[in-house]
Design a protein that fits this description.
The structure is a homodimer of 596-residue chains. By secondary structure, chain A is α+β, with helices and mostly antiparallel strands. Among the domains of chain A are: 94 residues, OB fold (Dihydrolipoamide Acetyltransferase, E2P), CATH 2.40.50.140; 127 residues, GAD-like domain (Gyrase A, domain 2), CATH 3.30.1360. The first copy, chain A, is 29% helix and 24% strand. Chain A has 17 helices and 24 strands. In chain A, the strands form five sheets. In chain A, strands 6-9-10-22-21-20-17-11 form an eight-stranded mixed β-sheet, with helices on both faces. In chain A, a hairpin with a 4-residue loop joins strand 14 and strand 15. In chain A, helix 4 packs antiparallel against helix 6 and helix 14 packs antiparallel against helix 15. The longest helix of chain A is centred in the N-terminal third of the chain and has 23 residues. At the A-B interface, strand 1, helix 3, helix 4, strand 6 and strand 7 of A face strand 1, helix 3, helix 4, strand 6 and strand 7 of B.
Chain lengths: 596, 596
């Protein structure tokens, strides 16, 4: 039988005591991290969320307590009363905040016992992730997860503090909302009181926060869960957390300034390095040209370079034909990489194939020649022009992509990031922020044969481009902006459409007729017609931000109870089947699931 | 065409300027609350969330701007630049913080126009609630809703500040969880990646917060949405907000002390009166005896009084038979109410009938007699005993309930609250808190013929009652506690079971066999066996708390986007039908809905 807590209460956490406390009577409570028996004395590393303190059971000091301590095993939960003593000469542990002292125990309560854990509770544990997720309550005891979750708490608190100080109101928006089958897929929630009808879980509080601006709340924020029923990639979760904001009577500069203040506050609280706004700015077009991606990692160079004009008339038909057909040819000079083997180069070819590149041409720059299957196709003039534009020096390895712009940019942009990591070009302690601006308003969806909003249909077009709405939708820029950190998009937002007529024209450009937009967005249009102020906002992906701040590669390391890529919680075994009674009340039937 | 904001930026909110600012150049932005034309001059009350400032368009000062101002209508969105001037003698408005000044406008932008609102934007608006809910974006402009939502923000911020200072960690728990068909009905979310399987939206983060304690996080909190798919009563919403907490290595006293600190912080921020812990305590039994309810309104007396012993042998067979059959007879002395008419008394009879009382006996105490159909059945001795116990004085009106204890207590307890309001016994500015303790662990469910947990199955039994688990479940007390404020339960919690064997025995007492509890709660039992500390917690109903703090009768007045009693959002028309494609992906079919 376990001991009960009774009236015993902690006096200190397990990271609190030092030499200055010598002689103090203390009560500590926590978990057994490690037990050692040495010379008949039992030493326990007692752990809580704050740290570790060594507690000692010495038969010469208290024989009964020492006797009781024999039962102690790993992860048992203890309460100990004792006196703080300096550790003997040579026994101090400078790696531990409490390493100068130990607690000589005079009273021991074994509050709970524990089965041997399924894996060691330490960071370098070599166990597959599913095992850890199935016993998440034990996994969460590991120091790195403890630290990440506590850091997340501090980051959220810093964000709230900043936003409260800036006059933002934390206003809750509903989770049971209306499905708007635009953008990503909704999670549906069947309504029992309205059988056959469904709520949707929000992909973001977008329309509600706009309505709050229309209501006059002026500055809104929320740290809030959002939901997208997508096929889950490595770094996606079915539910994710946004720091969501909206402001009235503002333009892009105002939102960027507040965002920079917010990010600075959070990084000051938990970051590894200082952050100094204002952040760099770059247009979407420049980002695509120089980095191939709209989320450039600006911690290193290795920029892409367009050589379409140089090779347009070359004898290398793959290049010249590509240019003729409206494609582009871009190159990437991996300085000093001429030593890469053929095998390594083939691996890069495989790498870009993932991004639909059908090949990866390359030139190895030697002291006296260009080593490459394609050198022979170029004239001396073309070679000189290339060498000059790409700064080709002996020892360099140049990669080429030739295809439609989308494929070239994506594949070389990804290759650039890949090489940046591989070549050690990245300062892992640096935080490089850049605002991406002047996004296109629409993109043409070849599959659905219609225009789609690059951000969302409520994003305002650039004022000067408004007249292009009918004539040249793809040429329009929007008032959207993304914040990119170290090559990850951590936030995105826009100035919104606040005028009903503009909103109607944008919805029409997206292919909706009046009946459709009135049915889906009638309430928004009516609200825009009721005195809507100019407004805009932004949302930050809190999980991704924490992933970067915690210096981890997986989003699951910054979420207390994450799901697998199949959307399962391995601990509680969710999702699970519903009872017939539950389905009956909802008026639903599960159809036979086809096995494919 | 509307004016664009351009580079114009606000210098002040609409509640900021006073006589000290006279002569300042300012820029204000907001909505047109009211327009008056007087002597050729146009006066606008410009409103934002902070307040109202009078802005003036005077043709003698700026003819062009005055001309433009003619177009202004109610709820238009304006930006004005101008100079602060003292209002002329006799024109100041002491009811307004800015009532000493006005802004003489030199530049006007009409940022947006507005249709005439469907109802006036003022508090005393006489329009039915559904109309207001359908245009919630306009409804939210009313001063009381603006104030309530801002007060809610401040209350949440105060709660977080206090809990952060106390070492609590804000940790997010999942919304897509496993259904545990205990207690209330779950909202289900079909899983597309696992067709035929369902998540459930959490009724509370109960098990996750316990797991966090087992993981060693020590102090957890969250202000979080929870979901219950119940038939909605007036003051229920399908989703509601809890301030949810859990602590390790604690007993009841610790949680009550932290709770009192939390509540005091919130009330200090937004309350109408000071709150001074420690709060009163009362056992469940005492609350039932004196008030008939486990959430007694202790702002007034009018207590119930048991007279079963006095009437057990009386000639009034309704009373004596009730006592013989194990029922009770209780009375309520409405002092000074002998003047109530027969019609009024009949209304009270109807009132208690709602709570299943089959009648309401009464005695009017006159100077020289008891006026009542039942007086004749009592002996002199019985009458004397009653008069003494109930302090029956001329002018009093005594009500009697006779039935099974549950019915008597509920109906007379509700009648007591009803009379308290009707008789004006309640100080509407008082905050009367009381902790209710020593709840029964189980209650017997006559319908299902089994025991049910009065709180939830994870509530610890009182240590001294543990041995009654097999022999006398109904006689057991639990370690649960509720916090009651002015007759509303605003919070409830308990010390939890932290030992696996106790948890198993409680689940067995609830009628589960091993297969069932392993399937439903296997992960919890395994976690309790992995080093679970003693722990406990509490959750406060934030919506109800705000209802009291905002002094409003409806929960919908403290929620930005509430739903109707049918669970509908009248603005967005949620819930709505799903598309065939959506249902197909989920492997679901909507069955024909029976019209009943």
């Amino acid at each position: 039988m376990n001991d009960t807590l009774g009236d015993m209460r902690r006096s200190h956490h397990c990271n609190a005591l030092g030499a200055a406390d010598t002689g103090a009577q203390v009560v500590l409570m926590g978990w057994v991290q490690r037990r050692r028996d040495h010379g008949g004395v039992i030493f326990i590393d007692l752990r809580d969320r704050e740290g570790i303190t060594q507690v000692v059971f010495n038969p010469d000091r208290n024989a009964a307590v020492h006797e009781k301590a024999h039962a102690i095993r790993s992860e048992y939960v203890l309460a100990v009363r004792g006196v703080v003593e300096k550790r003997p000469e040579g026994m101090t542990n400078p790696a531990l905040a409490t390493g100068e002292i130990e607690v000589m125990v005079s009273e021991l309560k074994i509050l709970n016992r524990a089965q041997t854990p399924p894996f060691m509770i330490e960071d370098q544990v070599d166990v597959n992730e599913n095992t850890r997720l199935a016993s998440r309550h034990i996994d969460l005891r590991r120091p790195s997860l403890q630290s990440n979750i506590m850091m997340r708490h501090r980051a959220a608190a810093a964000a709230r503090r900043y936003l409260n100080d800036q006059g933002f109101l934390d206003i809750e928006t509903p989770f049971l909302t209306r499905s708007t089958p635009e953008g990503a897929r909704d999670y549906l929630v069947p309504s029992r009181l309205n059988p056959g009808s469904f709520y949707a879980l929000p992909q973001s509080p977008q329309l509600f926060k706009q309505l709050l601006m229309i209501s006059g709340f002026d500055r809104y924020y929320q740290i809030v869960h959002c939901f997208r029923d997508e096929d889950l990639r490595a770094d996606r979760q079915p539910e994710f957390t946004q720091i969501d904001m909206e402001m009235s009577f503002v333009g892009e500069e105002d939102i960027m300034a507040v965002s920079e203040g917010l990010i600075s506050s959070v990084f000051q609280e938990v970051g590894r390095a200082a952050v100094s706004p204002p952040f760099a700015r770059m247009t979407y077009q420049e980002a695509m040209e120089r980095y191939g991606l709209d989320r450039p990692d600006t911690r290193f160079g290795l920029e892409l370079c367009d050589i379409s004009d140089i090779v347009a008339a070359s004898g290398f038909h793959l290049f010249s034909n590509t240019v003729k057909k409206g494609g582009i040819v871009k190159a990437l000079n991996a300085k000093g990489c001429a030593g890469f083997t053929r095998k390594q180069i083939d691996d890069f070819t495989d790498f870009v194939a993932v991004y639909r590149a059908r090949g990866l041409a390359w030139i190895r720059v030697k002291e006296d020649e260009w080593q490459s299957p394609i050198t022979k196709f170029f004239s001396e003039e073309e070679k000189q022009a290339m060498a000059a534009r790409l700064d080709m020096q002996p020892g360099d390895l140049v990669f080429f992509g030739a295809d439609q712009p989308g494929i070239v940019n994506e594949s070389l942009g990804q290759l650039r990031n890949h090489l940046g990591k591989k070549l050690g070009l990245i300062d892992e302690n640096a935080y490089e922020f850049v605002w991406i601006t002047d996004f296109p308003m629409f993109e043409y969806d070849e599959t659905e044969k219609r225009y789609q909003a690059l951000h969302h249909p409520f994003t305002a077009p650039a004022e000067k481009d408004l007249e292009k709405l009918a004539s040249d939708p793809v040429g329009m820029r929007s008032r959207a902006y993304d914040l990119v950190l170290n090559g990850s998009e951590i936030g995105g937002g826009s100035i919104r459409i606040h005028q009903k007529d503009v909103q109607v024209r944008v919805l029409e450009a997206l292919g909706m007729d009046r009946a459709e937009y009135e049915e889906k967005f009638g309430f928004l249009l009516s609200a825009l017609d009721s005195g809507a102020p100019p407004h805009g906002g932004i949302a930050f992906g809190f999980d991704r931000l924490m992933t970067i701040l915690c210096n981890t590669s997986s989003i699951r390391e910054v979420i207390a109870f994450p799901k697998t890529q199949k959307g399962a919680c391995l601990m509680t075994a969710a999702p699970a089947s519903a009872t017939a009674a539950q389905l009956g009340e909802l008026g639903l039937k599960v159809r036979r699931v086809e096995q494919s």
